[in-house]
Amino acid sequence: MWRSLAAMVLLIAVTKAASVLAPKMCVPIPGTQCASVGYNMTFAENDFTQEDADKIMSDFGPLIGTQCSAELKLFLCSVYVPVCAETDGSEGTVELHRVPPCRNLCLRVKEACLPTMTSFHYEWPRAVSALIKMIQKF
Q1: pLDDT 10s per residue in the chain (138 long)?
Q2: How far is C-alpha 103 from the geometric centre of its chain's CA atoms?
Q3: Where in the chain are the domains?
C-alpha cells in the first residue's frame, strides 16, 4: 500500500514538474475580436484566458464604437492577447518573445480616447492603466 502511495506521489510530482518545464508556444489567435488586428500569433499560455480577453473586448465595444482611435482595438488586443514572436536562438533553438504594445501606440491611444473616456466616466482597466504608467516613465 505504501509503495503504491509513494509511486502515486512521485507520478504527480513528475507530472507537475513536466508541465512547469513544458515549453511555451505560439498559437494562432482564435476566431475572436482580435483575429483581424494585424498579427496572428499569441501565447498558448497567456496572462488572460481567451474568455477573459473576449469579455474585456466586449466591455470595450462601446468605446471602440466611438472610433476615438483607429488603433484602440489593436492596442487592447496587444495587451490582452499579446503578440508572440519567434526568433532564432542559440544552437538552432527557437526563442519566443511576448511583444507588448509600443510606447507610441499606448500614448496615441490614451491621448485620443481620454476625452471620450472622461465624458463617459470610464476608466482604463488595471492591466491597461499599469502598462500606460510604466511606459510613461520611459
Answers
A1: 333 333 333 223 333 333 333 347 888 887 678 878 888 888 777 677 777 878 888 888 889 999 999 999 999 988 888 888 888 777 777 788 888 888 899 889 999 999 999 998 888 877 777 777 776 665
A2: 16
A3: 23-136
pTM: 0.71
Q: CB of 35 within 8 A of CB of 50?
A: no
Q: Residue 105 has which C-alpha cell?
A: 501606440
Q: Map grid coordinates 476608466 to a residue.
A: 123
d(CA 82, CA 78) in angstroms, rounded, equals 4
Fold of 23-136: Frizzled cysteine-rich domain (1.10.2000)
Neighbours of 42 (CB within 10 A): 24
Do 71 and 46 touch, CB atoms closer than 8 A? no
CA distances from 80 to 43, 75, 77, 114 (A): 11, 9, 5, 20
Question: β-strand 41-43 against 83-88: which pairing, if any?
Answer: unpaired
All cell numbers assigned to 13: 510530482
